[in-house]
Design goal:
Elements: E1 9-16, H1 19-32, E2 37-40, H2 48-52, H3 59-85, H4 102-124, E3 148-153, H5 161-170, E4 174-180
Antiparallel strand pairs: 1-3, 1-4, 2-3
Helix pairs in contact: 3-4
């Protein structure tokens, strides 16, 4: 007896001819009510965030909070070292010479902002992602070169392999394939 291979369905992948078609298709997928889907393009397509119905990123708020934390930490470290830990009078300056703290306070803000932006981007994008089911598609290998794709995941509440495939054909998708994990 031949063994049957247990494969889990990832979703459906469709190719589109150009960025304009991809943008129009993304609006139709959004309007149809799909939630677990993505577009893949070799370059950013202007207006795609709006076409997909994406919300603004929370990264800016996170970076701002971390930047202020870095600024206050750098300021407090300088204040503590000059006023509390080592209260030495140097060149006739007062213990809390806060105008001279400006450069390092700014540098603390920049340091914390840079690291929080990097780590926040990794976290929000779920990186590093060493494997993705779409990598098994021969057509998908062209997404970073000259092709435009929409993938709809099987995890989507509205997903039905036949209906989703038919829908993608209706909105202009070519080379439609069902992807298994």
């Amino acid at each position: 007896m031949a063994e049957q291979k247990n494969s889990k369905l990832f979703g459906v992948l469709a190719e589109f001819a150009n960025p304009g078609d991809l943008l129009k298709a993304a609006e139709k997928v959004r309007d149809k009510g799909y939630k677990k889907w993505d577009t893949h393009s070799p370059f950013p397509v202007h207006g795609m965030d709006r076409a997909m119905g994406l919300k603004d990123s929370k990264l800016g708020i996170f970076v701002f909070i971390c930047s202020m934390t870095g600024m206050l930490s750098a300021f407090y470290l300088q204040y503590w070292s000059s006023k509390i830990a080592y209260p030495l009078v140097i060149a006739g300056k007062p213990f809390n010479d806060y105008p001279s703290f400006g450069i390092w306070t700014f540098e603390g803000a920049i340091l914390f902002a840079a690291f929080s932006a990097l780590l926040g981007m990794f976290a929000l994008n779920k990186l590093p992602l060493l494997y993705h089911a779409l990598f098994s598609s021969k057509n998908f290998l062209r997404f970073s070169n000259d092709a435009f794709f929409i993938s709809i995941e099987a995890k989507d509440p509205q997903f039905n392999a036949k209906e989703t495939r038919r829908f993608l054909e209706e909105i202009g998708g070519k080379n439609i394939e069902v992807i298994e994990e």
